[in-house]
């Protein structure tokens, strides 16, 4: 729900006519540098979905890990017009997946409920995707678990497929507000630390790897393409 507020999708928190101070807090939270970075991250993911679907057409298979409410779908032309083969949203939270099913199930988006442990152990048998991405899961993982996640998701790609892992960068202006008031404490990573998440993958299997940033350089995406 917090992300929905930050995206401007649901402003129900204001329905009870808050006083001026609450209004100011809400306005700051939804327009802080971190909030703007999250909205930019959403646009970047939607563009990656559309680029994949443009390239692969009706055969495009996309896997979203830790998808939350999957609100990037609102910005994706491919999702809006059903121009994909399969989109699967994985999340440990059943309530999040119920929102996804209600909002995007009619467009052909499917959901998968499971734990992080099941994902890391390979129990879910996910394979041969053109795009696998996680916008914010790495923010909550220590390095060792992040390496395991990157390895597992990379192996879920088909040859030529692309992995995208998002992460907040260090030194974000105004981050103390989110950390202090909302108790939101991501595991920040610099670019070199993001590249280190690929250490569990045989480098011969990686066709290319790079780190890309949002326009304000507050969020980074590790991008890795599987050889083939």
Automatic annotation (TrEMBL):
<dbReference type="GO" id="GO:0032259">
    <property type="term" value="P:methylation"/>
</dbReference>
<keyword id="KW-0489">Methyltransferase</keyword>
<keyword id="KW-0808">Transferase</keyword>
<dbReference type="InterPro" id="IPR029063">
    <property type="entry name" value="SAM-dependent_MTases_sf"/>
</dbReference>
<protein>
    <submittedName>
        <fullName>Class I SAM-dependent methyltransferase</fullName>
    </submittedName>
</protein>
<dbReference type="GO" id="GO:0008168">
    <property type="term" value="F:methyltransferase activity"/>
</dbReference>
């Amino acid at each position: 729900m917090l992300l929905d507020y930050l995206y401007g999708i649901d402003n129900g928190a204001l329905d009870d006519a808050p006083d001026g101070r609450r209004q100011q807090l809400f306005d700051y939270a939804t327009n802080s540098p971190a909030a703007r970075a999250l909205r930019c991250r959403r646009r970047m993911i939607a563009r990656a979905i559309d680029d994949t679907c443009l390239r692969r057409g009706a055969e495009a298979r996309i896997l979203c890990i830790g998808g939350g409410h999957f609100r990037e779908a609102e910005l994706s032309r491919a999702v809006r017009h059903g121009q994909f083969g399969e989109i699967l949203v994985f999340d440990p939270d059943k309530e999040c997946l119920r929102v996804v099913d209600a909002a995007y199930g009619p467009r052909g988006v499917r959901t998968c409920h499971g734990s992080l442990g099941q994902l890391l152990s390979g129990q879910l048998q996910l394979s041969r995707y053109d795009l696998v991405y996680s916008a914010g899961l790495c923010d909550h993982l220590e390095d060792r678990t992040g390496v395991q996640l990157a390895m597992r998701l990379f192996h879920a790609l088909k040859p030529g497929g692309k992995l995208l892992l998002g992460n907040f960068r260090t030194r974000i202006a105004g981050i103390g507000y989110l950390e202090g008031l909302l108790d939101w404490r991501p595991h920040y990573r610099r670019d070199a630390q993001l590249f280190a998440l690929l250490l569990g993958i045989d480098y011969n299997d990686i066709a290319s790897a790079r780190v890309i940033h949002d326009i304000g350089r507050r969020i980074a995406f590790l991008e890795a393409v599987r050889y083939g």
